[in-house]
Design brief:
Elements (H helix, E strand, L loop, with lengths): L14 H45 L1
C-alpha cells in the first residue's frame, strides 16, 4: 500500500509516519521533562513555605 492510497489506507512503515512519530515522542519527552521540573520547583516551594510556617509557629 502506498501512503494516502485511494482506499484511504496508510502504510504505517512509511518514513513520513516514522518521522512524525519520532517528533511526537520528542515533544512528549520535552513536556514530561518540563512537568517534572515544574513539579520539583513546586515541591521546593512547599518545603520552603513549611519551614517558614514552622519557624513562625515557634515564635508565638
Amino acid at each position: 500500500m502506498q501512503k494516502g492510497s485511494i482506499n484511504g489506507s496508510y502504510d504505517l512503515n512509511s518514513s513520513g509516519f516514522e518521522k512524525g512519530d519520532t517528533a511526537r515522542r520528542s515533544r512528549t519527552t520535552e513536556r514530561s521533562e518540563l512537568v517534572s521540573e515544574e513539579a520539583e520547583q513546586h515541591r521546593d516551594n512547599i518545603r520552603q513555605l513549611r519551614a517558614v510556617v514552622k519557624k513562625r509557629a515557634y515564635c508565638f
